[in-house]
Amino acid sequence: MSYYAPSYPPAGYGGGGYNIAGGPPPVPGADPALWGRFSSVDTDRDGAITATELQSALANSDLSPFDIDTIKLLMDFFDHDRDGMIGFEEFQRLSRYIKDWQNVFRHFDRDRSGTIDGSELRSALSRFGSVTTPFFSRGEEPSNTPDYRGIVPTGISFDRFVRACVVVKQLTETFQRLDVDNDGWIQVDYDQFMSTVLSLP
Questions:
Q1: Is 137 helix (H, G, I), strand (E, B) or coil?
Q2: What are phi and psi of 127, to 5 degrees?
Q3: I need a labelling partner for 175 at 20 to 30 A (CA). Which of 24, 33, 104, 187 fits?
Q4: pLDDT in tens, the chain (201 residues)
């Protein structure tokens, strides 16, 4: 049975990193907690947040901040007017997207370690329709560098899991569009290759 990835992005695994702070009154119908989270990182009170401000709003279950590359990926999805910032409505959609991914992460984090190891990652990607091998997941193996608590991670964190799944899903869908005879092989010239690469987020 296939397990479907969220079709648009959510907010961090675990509840860490979200601070309730003062600020302007919530917009009509806004979730007070979500508005507090947004306003706490909207430091200049202009009603929009940058990638740096978004990073301070999102955290993994161990309270480590989201990787900046994952933040940039999320910004690319939700910054619809391409002004380098997202407003509160976009932030609400992003938060729902993150929550969807939290559910996916919990499903595949079978040992409840708060991280995803290589076999769990391959299982997740195969459920999304991607064909992977042990070699594939080497790029997402945990670093031997201790985290801010001095602990060496045993798997990839939630933010890196989201980025890996989203990128592989996009690449797989792009490959499938080019693989018109569905034989698992494609032949493209340089211009077509560059056009394909540059079309990805």
A1: helix
A2: -65, -25
A3: 104
A4: 333 445 544 443 333 333 334 455 566 778 888 998 999 999 988 889 999 999 999 999 888 899 999 999 999 889 988 899 999 999 999 999 999 999 989 998 988 888 998 888 888 877 766 555 444 444 444 445 555 445 445 688 999 999 988 888 788 888 888 888 988 888 988 888 888 777 766
CA angle 169, 153, 156 (to 5 degrees): 5
Q: What six digits make up the tokens of 177? A: 């569009």
Are 51 and 84 in contact by the 8 Å Cβ rule? The answer is: yes
Tokens of 193: 């290759």
| Tally of residues, the chain | 201
| Residue position matching structure tokens 């947004």 | 38
Name the strand (E) or helix (H) holding 160: helix 158-178
At position 47, the amino acid (one-letter code) is G
**Residue 77 neighbours by CB distance under 10 Å:** 17
Check: CB of residue 90 under 8 Å from CB of residue 80: yes
> CA 150: distance to chain centroid?
25
Q: How many CB atoms lie within 10 A of CB 151?
A: 9
